[in-house]
């Protein structure tokens, strides 16, 4: 194993031969370097894409501040080296290292891998390999760190079950501390021989709420290849792993790492609320992050001020899944615009509803530059909008768009999705028609200056959503629909972007995969797949060959409608929203029935009974679930 | 008000390029609470001028940057800090409800690791641009794998005895020899041999240490290069070409 000094010496020899060496040296403002020798627990937080993307990730930032806030633990960071750096590292025998101390990743007690989306899977394998840690969980011994993943993609952990020792399902703020406590209790031995450390720790982790240790579960398949059951093999492991949920959102991070090179986002991010009550049926985030919990305006403004002062960033993003639904949104926007006026700060408030109030809100936040304005209608016919439960009439979209152009935003971006259940070419044609009408309102207001960017992604039926029973469009269907849009939207003021069908299918296989998918991932990685989220790196042929060599049919995972009672590979993972509820909602979509925002009337999705104890401790309007009898008698204001 | 900051750029900062450094100064000034003056126009940006881009991988001992700060807030802008220069030329910053602080202290507290603030001075608003004034740069090239110094000394002597060193950079031919104002082998405190170079740094006539090293046959991965000083035209004229003025080094 290499010591930091040796890693440093080797690094110095190669850094000037790679692009953007600033990615690999750390030393950023607000990065935390703690004393290695006197700090008992060492964590490496890994984002499996390049620094430029990972350094802006909010999840890593939250955990970084939490762990480094503990006197008995330190957290360092590692990101995926770009292709040129990987080649140099392998050639010069440099293992993946923590940016702060340059200790090899294999020196850490715990490697935490962020898996927010599926196309990072091969990178995750590659990073373990580059760190000299066996990629298969069962091949690690007691000198290797524990390797744990978290993030939205872990709501179907099965495709990655072979590579991770454990998964944290749901929110990590509380769980990370509990895991560190377990590591304090069972310190990692220096020698592998004769130690039972890994086994002991994994048994403890298996009984920790929200933690899934895949080696303690067994999958049994039906003759037709579908799952019969996934069952625990040890008494400590629960049959169903229910996600973690932080009943009261902790203070937001404020000591954001300020990268010395340009990152994709150079900004302070404050999560104004977590969860969403809209119930769009395609949206996994909206289903798995319930209940809605809001931060107070005071807390948000104070955190934003501290973070902007401490970082010097030029942008502040107020994030949530649906900003318009933040109860005191007007109050927040007024407070933020008052606080930061004249300070050359760009404020981003994405995920606004399509209504003219949103234009008022954005106008209040507009300081000096008129950037773009983004709306997400997702579908363009009434039928489709009812099916996906995102119902916004054309008139409302046109009125809002007209308002946006009229108030001087020259560029509007519209997001749509094709491939929704039962979508026809007429539904796709309606997208083109609506875009043309929107641009016409822009031309009315701004003439030739008006621009429209149209982003059309392809629907993937994600686990834990009402659409998890639905098939993905075939590549032929997708191409037909995209051709139609490309043909219709030929206007030099319209810029159309879309997702390649191959990208969609890969994401769908990985999102919907089972334990057998792990072998496909391993095979594809061995044959060179990595950076699958990158257009210029993704190699669909490697994936096709991997499925082929393992005798698996990719269509089995993607193009097969499911029976009501099919056991899904992720059924032992619970988002607290019941499968029964999801299925009933799916049936409603088939009947074209929408569902209202559930803040007023509880739809009984399963959140309240699952988290009744937490609700009892946090009554009143802090959670946006309506007060249901027996939970708490008193209505209280949030703190 | 225009201020000139003398700073060092070391450690991880060595791998940060010129454009990124521009943003680092912008954010550092904001964290320090200094009222940056912005340019007018469609894309207003702060006025920041860094002298002579320091190539990636080099450390800098005494680099220079000029910042323009607002004397008074523009109409409609919140009242910010104001700056004053004391009789002993110290730039002081006055912020609402806070004791007066030295500008250098505020900047040092706000600077990222690898940037150290050495001096802050007021400069006439319309003084010539830094880039126009710098005429030469001193470099100290430490040899990481010393090997034999004798052949290197011969090569240095040979190079200095040559009247012209035609080379090509980005497809353009140029003569390296007149850009080398001084070249000598010196010993650093750690006894590792090093090369001192004084190279021309005028616009369109910039000598690069890497190019000199290529001529000397020293592989780039075996050296560490530090730019120790930027010289203005008037300094360069009065500076001897020996290395006496480098305090940190003993011959």
Description:
The complex is a heterodimer of chains A (639) and B (251). Chain A is α/β, with parallel strands linked by helices and 639 residues long. In chain A, 36% of the residues lie in helices and 14% in strands. Chain A has 22 helices and 19 strands. In chain A, the strands form six sheets. A six-stranded mixed sheet of chain A has the order 2-1-3-4-5-6, with helices on one face. In chain A, strand 16 (411-418), helix 14 (425-446) and strand 17 (451-458) form a beta-alpha-beta unit. In chain A, helix 10 runs parallel beside helix 11 (356-365), helix 14 (425-446) packs parallel to helix 15 (475-488) and helix 17 packs across helix 18. Chain A is globular. Residues 631-639 of chain A have low confidence and may be disordered. Chain B is α+β, with helices and mostly antiparallel strands and 251 residues long. The relative contact order of chain B is 0.17. In chain B, strand 2 (48-50) and strand 3 form a beta hairpin. Chain B contains six helices and 14 strands. Chain A binds chain B through residues 12-13, 15-17, 21-22, 24-29, 31, 258, 260-262, 266, 309-314, 341-344, 368-369, and chain B through 11-13, 15-17, 20, 23-24, 26-31, 33, 36, 38, 43-44, 56-57, 73-74, 76-78, 110, 112-114, 220-221, 224.
The beta-strand count of chain B equals: 14
Low-pLDDT segments of chain A: 631-639
Radius of gyration of chain A: 25 Å
- The helix content of chain B, as a percent range, equals 10-25%
- Note poorly predicted spans of chain B: 240-251
Helix segment tally of chain A: 22
Overall morphology of chain B: elongated
Q: Main traits of this protein?
A:
heterodimer; A: 639 residues; alpha/beta; 4-stranded parallel sheet; 19 strands; B: 251 residues; alpha+beta; 9-stranded mixed sheet; 3-stranded antiparallel sheet; 6 helices; 14 strands; 21% helix; elongated; disordered C terminus
């Amino acid at each position: 194993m290499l010591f930091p000094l040796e890693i440093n010496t080797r690094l110095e020899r190669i850094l000037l031969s790679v692009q953007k060496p600033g990615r690999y040296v750390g030393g950023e403002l607000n990065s935390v370097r703690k004393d290695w020798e006197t700090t008992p627990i060492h964590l490496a937080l890994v984002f499996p894409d390049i620094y430029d993307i990972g350094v802006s990730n909010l999840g890593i930032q939250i955990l970084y501040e939490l762990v480094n806030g503990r006197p008995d633990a330190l957290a360092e960071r590692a990101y995926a080296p770009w292709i040129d750096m990987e080649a140099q590292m392998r050639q010069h025998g440099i293992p993946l290292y923590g940016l702060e101390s340059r200790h090899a990743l294999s020196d850490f007690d715990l490697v935490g891998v962020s898996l927010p989306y599926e196309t990072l899977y091969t990178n995750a394998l590659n990073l373990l390999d580059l760190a000299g840690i066996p990629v298969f969980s069962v091949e690690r011994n007691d000198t290797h760190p524990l390797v744990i993943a978290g993030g939205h993609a872990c709501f179907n952990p099965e495709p990655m079950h072979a590579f991770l020792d454990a998964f944290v399902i749901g929110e990590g703020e509380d769980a990370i501390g509990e895991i560190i406590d377990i590591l304090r209790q069972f310190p990692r031995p220096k020698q592998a021989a004769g130690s039972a450390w890994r086994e002991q720790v994994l048994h403890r982790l298996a009984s920790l709420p929200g933690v899934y240790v895949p080696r303690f579960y067994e999958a049994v398949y039906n003759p037709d290849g579908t799952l019969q059951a996934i069952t625990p093999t040890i008494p400590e492991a629960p049959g169903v792993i229910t996600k973690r949920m932080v009943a009261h959102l902790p203070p937001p991070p404020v000591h954001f790492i300020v990268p010395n090179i340009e990152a994709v986002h150079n900004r302070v991010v404050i999560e104004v609320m977590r969860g969403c009550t809209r119930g769009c049926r395609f949206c996994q985030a909206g289903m798995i992050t319930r209940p809605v919990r809001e931060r107070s305006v005071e807390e948000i403004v104070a955190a934003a001020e501290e973070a902007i002062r401490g970082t010097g960033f030029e942008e502040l993003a107020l994030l949530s899944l649906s900003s318009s639904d933040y109860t005191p949104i007007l109050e927040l926007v007024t407070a933020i615009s008052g606080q930061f006026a004249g300070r050359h700060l760009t404020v981003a408030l994405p995920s606004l509803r399509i209504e003219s109030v949103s234009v008022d809100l954005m106008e209040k936040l507009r300081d000096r530059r008129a950037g773009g304005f983004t709306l997400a209608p997702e579908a363009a016919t009434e039928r489709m909008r009812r099916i996906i439960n995102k119902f916004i009439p054309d008139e409302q979209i046109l009125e809002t768009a007209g308002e946006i152009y009229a108030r001087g935003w020259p560029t509007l971006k519209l997001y749509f999705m094709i491939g929704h259940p039962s979508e026809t070419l007429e539904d796709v044609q309606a997208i083109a028609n609506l875009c043309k009408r929107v641009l016409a309102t822009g031309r009315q207001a701004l003439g030739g200056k008006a621009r429209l960017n149209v982003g059309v992604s392809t629907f993937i039926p994600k686990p834990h959503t009402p659409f998890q029973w639905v098939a993905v469009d075939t590549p032929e269907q997708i191409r037909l629909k995209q051709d139609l849009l490309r043909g219709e939207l030929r206007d030099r003021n319209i810029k159309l972007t879309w997702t390649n069908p191959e990208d969609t299918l890969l994401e769908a296989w990985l999102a919907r995969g089972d334990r057998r998918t792990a072998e496909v991932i391993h095979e594809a990685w061995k044959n060179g797949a990595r950076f699958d989220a990158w257009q210029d790196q993704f190699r669909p042929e490697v994936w096709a060959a991997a499925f082929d060599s393992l005798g698996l049919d990719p269509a089995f995972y993607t193009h097969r409608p499911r029976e009501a009672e099919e056991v899904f590979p992720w059924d032992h993972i619970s988002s607290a929203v019941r499968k029964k509820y999801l299925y009933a909602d799916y049936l409603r979509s088939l009947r074209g029935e929408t569902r209202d925002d559930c803040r007023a009337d509880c739809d009984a999705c399963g959140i309240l009974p699952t988290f009744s104890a937490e609700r009892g401790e946090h009554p009143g309007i802090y959670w946006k679930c309506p007060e249901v009898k027996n939970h708490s008698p008193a209505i209280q204001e949030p703190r | 008000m225009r201020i000139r900051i003398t700073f060092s750029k070391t450690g991880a900062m060595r791998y940060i390029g010129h454009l990124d450094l521009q943003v680092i100064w912008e954010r550092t000034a904001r964290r320090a609470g200094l009222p940056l003056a912005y340019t007018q126009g469609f894309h207003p940006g702060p006025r920041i001028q860094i002298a002579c881009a320091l190539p990636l991988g080099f450390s800098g001992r005494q680099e220079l940057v000029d910042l323009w700060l607002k004397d008074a807030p523009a109409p409609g802008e919140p009242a910010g800090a104001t700056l004053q220069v004391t009789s002993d030329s110290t730039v002081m910053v006055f912020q609402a409800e806070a004791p007066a602080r030295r500008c250098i202290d505020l900047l040092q507290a706000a600077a990222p690791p690898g940037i150290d603030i050495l001096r802050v001075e007021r400069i006439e608003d319309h003084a010539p641009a830094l880039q126009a004034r710098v005429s030469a740069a001193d470099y100290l090239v430490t040899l990481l794998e010393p090997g034999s110094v004798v052949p290197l000394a011969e090569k240095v002597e040979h190079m200095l005895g040559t009247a012209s060193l035609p080379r090509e950079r980005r497809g353009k031919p140029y003569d390296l020899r007149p850009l080398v104002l001084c070249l000598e082998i010196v010993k650093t405190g750690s006894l590792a041999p090093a090369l001192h170079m004084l190279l021309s740094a005028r616009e369109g006539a910039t000598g690069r240490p890497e190019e000199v090293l290529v001529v000397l046959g020293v592989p780039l991965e075996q050296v560490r290069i530090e730019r120790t000083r930027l010289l203005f035209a008037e300094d360069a004229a009065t500076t001897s070409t020996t290395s006496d003025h480098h305090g940190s080094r003993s011959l």
